[in-house]
Design a protein that fits this description.
The chain has 71 residues and is largely without helices or strands. It has one helix and two strands.
Length: 71
Amino acid sequence: NIAEGNHIPSRDERKCPSCMNEYEEDAVFCGNCGQNIKEFYEAEVETCSVCESTMKKGSNYCGICGSKQIQ
């Protein structure tokens, strides 16, 4: 599950990607909704090859810079 609006917070933002609740730096699970944070970022997220923003894995284009992603 990705929070409404399709914004995926970077790990540096320390906001749960499911509920946007803030979590501690070393947290594995969100204290609000129980999302496994580490597993989510490993399975669902990749970094744009151009601007290095966080984006959903398998995206054809970056939502920040608009660059076409090479799969």
